[in-house]
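Feature request, filed as a ticket because there's no other form

It would be nice if the structure record came with a short human-readable summary line next to the C-alpha cells. Right now we just get the raw output. Example of a typical job, pasted below so the devs can see what we mean:
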Amino acid sequence: MSVKFKVVPRRNPQDNAAPEKFYAAAISNGETDLEALSEMIAYQSTLTDTDCYAVLRSLEHNIINELKQGRIVRLGSLGSFQVSLSSDGKDVADEVTALDIVKNRINFRPGKKLRQMLQQISYQKEE
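Raw output as currently delivered:
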C-alpha cells in the first residue's frame, strides 16, 4: 500500500513576483467514519458493532469534555490532543485578558506508532 500524491503549483506568498514552484500534495483515498471503525473493531473482537460504536462515541464525548477543562488528552501510542491559543501582545502582563485571545485550536501530537508509520509509508505519484 502507498499514499498517492499529485503535483501542485504554488506561489511564494512573501514574493508574488517569484515564479511558481511545484510541490507534492497527498491525495485522499476516501474516508473511514465511526460506523466503519466500529464494524472493523467488532470483526476483530467479541464485541458487537453497536457496542464498539457506543464506546467510540463515548471516547469522542469525553475527549471534548477533557479538552474543555484544559487537560491534555493522551491516547497511548496514538498521540495526544491539547488546546492552544494565540493572543494579542501587551506591554504589561496584568493587561492580558481573555478578550486578547484571537485564535484557538486543537493541537494533535502523534505518538510513537504514528511516527513509525510515517517513516514506513511509501508514496506513488498519480499519473
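Something like this underneath would help us a lot:
The mean pLDDT is 94.
The two ends are 17 Å apart (CA to CA).
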